[in-house]
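Here is my example:
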Amino acid sequence: MPNPTIIKMTALDHRDAAHNPVMARHYGITSEFVKRNMKFGSNSFVYMDCCFLAAAPFRDACTSVGASLYAGWTEATGGESAARAARFIFDRMTGDNSPSIDQENPKQRPFDYTSALSDLRSRGWATSNAAQLVITPVGGDCGILAPSILMLNNDDVSSDVSMTLSLVGYFGKDPGAANRSVTLGGQPLNIKSWGPDPNSSTRDMVVCDKVPLSGAGGAGDCIVNSYGHQSNKVPLTEWVWSLQYTLHAEGRVISLLSPSTGSTSGSTSIRSGSCRIPIRIRVGVGFGTSPTARPATRLAARAGRDQGT
């Protein structure tokens, strides 16, 4: 039968106690079946955890029906090796940090497929017998499986009640208002823009405005969601520094943090009161440049406006 869509095949099922091969009959689909009956979503990642499927015609068939990124083995591969490689690639690309697949410490953010595959090769896990795992971009824009935040920048306070928060990382093309969100401390933020980072040729930037200076949505874990896929959590911590002050005629502030810190002889107090200064700090583990690189520590602080009297 020319161009069959379904075939009957015999393959190794397992080995018995004496290590003899036990074969089993299966049905399988062909590249013709893919072309006639399948359709992949936009920017999809097709991962064929099978022998001999790294190249045409199966890869080309998947490409013709919408695949963006395609993975497969070049030769016959062992089942355990193939399963380990698949778990590793998806763990690193989603930032799942599963303890079952050589978990990094500290836990890592999601990475693009080139970084994940490079890490797999460095461990010798991209090879099984004579087979090599190959991941090929074949169209579209599938470089990541989950958004990845590298850093947060809480910009200059734009008003007495709000600020602007810029997120730098890898977020992909703007999925549209219905398919995206940014939350801070569990509260949704207003997304002003989503696109390339003007300071980098490879990174993206999401800008959120009208971020509250205090209360719900002003601090906490920042999370990006795109098409239902969640990013790593990046904390924006807030401390509020309370000060007591006394201003004298000479223009000297002689009391901070306590009612009095020096002599007031010969001076006249013209004003006293208190103020609260919010300080937001992005503190903790920074971002790693690769799945195996230890994240650099990053400390970024920004003082807000006086909330005093």
